[in-house]
Amino acid sequence: MNRKREDDENRLLRELVKEEREEIEILRDIRGELKPKHLAFVKIAIGGKMIGPVTLTVGDKKTATLQGFDQNGAPFVIDPSTVASVAWVMSDPALDSSTPNADNSDAIVSLSAGVANLSGTLTTTDGKTFSDIETITNVAQAPVLSSVKIDFA
Predict the structure, then answer these.
(1) Are 49 and 107 contained in the same domain?
(2) Does any domain span residue 98?
(3) Which CATH number does the domain housing residue 126 bear?
(4) How far apart are CA 100 and CA 74, in angstroms?
(5) pTM for the full model?
(6) pLDDT for res 1
(7) What does each of the 153 residues of the chain score in pLDDT, given as a tens digit?
(8) CB atoms within 10 A of CB 86
(9) 48 and 30 belong to one structural domain
(10) Among 41, 53, 62, 127, which has the minimal tally of Cβ within 10 Å of its Cβ?
(11) DSSP collapsed to 3 states, 46-85
């Protein structure tokens, strides 16, 4: 009888220890969520979308911006007063023009077919640097029938 009782107590203790470990993990998650949010990384959005590699048709004009994310991967609003500088670099200016704007965005114009990379780097007033690179594929415009010539010969 003592052996069965001892086995039952051991089983209950193991269950309690397992539950305590699960509770500790949940409390750690909660503690992580309660920590003050901070800018952890940035991603380039082109035309307001972060869709991975971007395809533009020659002649397209888009605006690139850097979007902030916190340590949990949630969107993070970047306070403009904390931005020391934003730099934009296009890997091949013959394919896409890149013109930085006063609001730290970048005006992009697709110039010719090919693939280029746009990199954006944000430096904060306390010296932290955050960067991202986005691939831009430019495709030629599809020919459009603009006139018809009839030959009656």
Answers:
(1) yes
(2) yes
(3) 2.60.40.1080
(4) 26
(5) 0.71
(6) 63
(7) 688 888 888 898 899 999 999 999 988 888 777 778 889 999 999 998 887 789 999 999 999 999 999 988 999 999 999 999 999 999 999 999 999 999 999 999 999 999 999 999 999 999 999 999 999 999 998 878 888 888 887
(8) 20
(9) no
(10) 127
(11) ECCECCCCEEEECCCEEEEEEEEEECCCCEECCCHHHEEE
